[in-house]
Structures are given as C-alpha cells and as structure tokens.
Amino acid sequence: MDKKAILAVSFGTSYQDTLERTIAAIEKELAAVFPDRILLRAFTSGMICRKLKERDGIVIPSPAQALEQLLGEGVTDVVIQPTHVINGAEYDKLMAQAEPFRDKFARLTVGAPLLTSIEDYKAVADAVLEQLPEQQADTAQVFMGHGTEHYVNPSYTQLEYLFHDMGRKDIIIGTVEGYPGLEQVLRRLSERPEVKKAQLHPLMVVAGDHARNDLAGEEPDSWKSALESAGYQVACDLRGLGEFPGIQRLFAEHARQAADNRD
Question: Which residues are annotated as a binding site?
C-alpha cells in the first residue's frame, strides 16, 4: 500500500499569531480533505526559516529538505500544495526545488497557486466579497498585493478588473513592490471626489511585515499615512487572505485537482 503525503509550501512568516490564523488554517483544511495523507509544512523563505530557528528554536524545512524527509520515511506519493497567491518567483523557486525529486517518488504532483485559472479569480473575488461590507459611495476598499518583477504581475490588475465587472468599482488594488503602486492608488482615489474614506486590506495570504508596516504602519511612507495626509479617513483590516474560509477551500480544491491528476 502506497504511503502518501501532502506537502504544504508557504513563503512563511515569523509572526506566530497570523501563522496560526492563515497558514495553519489552510493546512487544517488540507488535512481534512486528505485524511489518508501525512501533512508536512515547508517554507520557501530561508530568511524566515533562519529567524524562527534562531529566535524560537522552531525548525521549518525548505521544500527540498521536506521532500528528502518524506523520501526517508518511505513516502511514495506526494502532493505539493503551495499557498502562494500568484504563479510568480516563489512558485518558480518551489518548482525548481521539486524537479529533482520527480523520479524519486512513484508519484509527485503540484497544485496550483491561488490565482491561476479565470475560475480561480472568480472564486477569490467571491471569497473576498463575503468578508467586505456593502459598497458605499464615499468609501474605497483598497487592497495591497505584494507585487513582483515577474511577468505574472498583471494578475493583480486582472483581479481588480474582475471586481469592477462584478459591480464593485469601490475596490482598488495596488502593490508594494510592483505596478500599480501607491502613486497609482492615490491617483485612482483622486479621480473619485465623492470618496472620503478608505479601508485598507492586505491582498496577501499572511498579514506579516508588509501589512503591519508598509500598509498600516505609523511611518510617514506607509499607505495609511499617505492616505491620511491626502485627507482620507483611513481604517485598516489586517486579516490575511488565508483567514477566509473561501480561500482555504480553494487551496484544498487545487490540491484535490493535483491529487486526481493522473498524467
């Protein structure tokens, strides 16, 4: 009988509280969907892994280390499910680490990141809208994605376009490390003179440093400070996407699709 595992791969976070509400919650959903599989956690961020080990004595393996561990335990069938939002650099890094192991397991498959198919975009939009208040003319819902130099960066603008097609033109999506950025967010807000309030949200699985500092921090260069300086009344909702049940279910569905793929 095959020994099976599911490897949940995240970028990682050193904030234990948000880890439990996001990454651990997704892993719990995965474990419920795959009761016949061992579940193992891995992080792609070496910096976070080192910090957790030095500060807390917690050892989180990289994907390659986790796959070596599963090999040593006699596992023959592995589903890798990333908790990444886009098919970007971290996903490419994961695929590169997994590739040498393809011939070492009887079966190794990889689930898709959050935003992959157009059906995924619709499911993510639905999951987010379940958590938002009704649209109000004087309020913008502003989301901060991570952003990247990777060619999939337009995923963020496609998601915003979809929200608008669904009637939620109050939603603006920017990124902290890509385009559109804060400058574009402020310009978009200025094009709607009826907007006096902005609610800020992270468009990230985990609400870590970027959410707490770049988005909602008190420093003058944070998005919160910039919008307040521009005259907006600002509130912050620092829940990561991983806290939303619809997002947890979508990751589990991607893992199920990978497990069912017999190619």
Answer: 146, 177, 210
The pair of three-digit structure tokens given for residue 128, joined into one six-digit string: 């987010």
Structure tokens at 110: 């990889």
Same domain, 162 and 230: yes
Domain around 57: 4-115+243-260
Instruction: Work out the percent of the chain whose per-residue pLDDT is above 90.
Output: 95
Task: Let me know: does 195 contact 138? Beta carbons within 8 Å.
Answer: yes
HSE-CB of 145 using CA atoms within 13 angstroms: 28
Instruction: Give just the sign of the alpha carbon dihedral 24, 28, 34, 38.
Output: positive
Active-site residue list: 146
Buried b (16+ CB within 10 A) or exposed e, 155-176: bbbebbebbeeeebebbbbbbb
Q: How far apart are CA 77 and CA 84, in angstroms?
A: 22
Please indicate, yes or no, whether residues 139 and 234 belong to a single structural domain of this protein: yes
Q: Please give the average per-residue pLDDT across 226-247, as a whole number.
A: 97
Distance between CA 154 and CA 132 in Å, rounded? Answer: 23
Q: At what angle do helices 245-260 and 23-33 cross, to 10 degrees?
A: 50
Domain at 50, CATH number: 3.40.50.1400
Pick out the residues of the known binding site for Co(2+). Answer: 146, 177, 210
141-160 residue pLDDT tens: 999 999 999 999 999 999 99
- The per-residue pLDDT for range 69-112, each reduced to its tens digit, is 999 999 999 999 999 999 999 999 999 999 999 999 999 999 99
Q: What does the chain come to in residues?
A: 263
